[in-house]
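Appendix C reproduces, verbatim, an entry submitted by the partner laboratory led by Prof. M.T., so that reviewers can inspect both the input and the predicted structure.
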Amino acid sequence: MNFPEWRVVRVMLAVGLIFVLGIVTGRWTAPRPTGTRFRPLPPPIQAQGSPDVAINHMLAYIDLSPDQIAAIRVLMEKWAMETRSTAPFSDERKEAFLKYVPMIRRELKPEQLEAYDAMTEATKVRANRRQRMRP
């Protein structure tokens, strides 16, 4: 079959127009990105005793000064030594966490406390959920 050239051009233009309209319509109807800040995953169980991992996790939530990092690192190292021999998600580890939360809280500025409280609450909820899942 021999098609006239104008038909081929017309079909190509129609297909091109369909693609362009699809892109434009998709841009208008696509969901808008929200302004939520990215929250990293918690550190793996094997690394939870490491002060560096814990401080890096805190830095994802709170902007800490070098002095605050140094003061918190000392507390984290004591905490790591205290929980080194305990099983993950054990009651002893939970008690140590609850013991060190106020100590770390004292090192923070008032504007950092809200983010720290949210982070510790999320950690408590996650630990309780994992503790319930344990056999």
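The chain has a mean pLDDT of 80. Additional entries are available on request from the coordinating office.
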